[in-house]
Amino acid sequence: MILFLQILLLISSVLLILLVLLHRGRGGGLSSLFGGGMQSSLSGSSVVEKNLDRLTLFVGSVWVIAIVGIGLLMKVN
């Protein structure tokens, strides 16, 4: 079980890094490379940015759950 959580932690860590890099910052970010910078600044967040936010929160919660699970399993053993 701890091996599964360690693999899950590794995969979620890499995904979390990539998702954070895809977010648009003040200067446009990497998301503008994929067409995210084409909308006007008056329209607010696009659907792509909102879905990217949701996906980042989901992967972040999986990352936290994996860390807590590994910690609990190491404490028990």
Strand fraction: under 5%
Please identify the structural class as seen in this structure. mainly alpha
Largest sheet: none
Tally of contiguous helical segments = 2
Which stretches of 5+ consecutive residues score pLDDT under 50? none
Distance between the termini: 12 Å
Which percent range fits the helix content? 55-70%
Describe the global form.
elongated
The value of Rg in angstroms is: 16 Å
Number of strands: 0
How confident is the prediction overall: mean pLDDT?
84
Listing every helix as H and every strand as E from the N terminus to the C terminus, the arrangement reads HH
Question: What would the keywords be for this entry?
Answer:
single chain; 77 residues; mainly alpha; 2 helices
Descriptive account of the structure:
- The protein is mainly α and 77 residues long.
- The chain is built from 2 helices and no strands.
- The termini are close together.
- The mean pLDDT is 84.
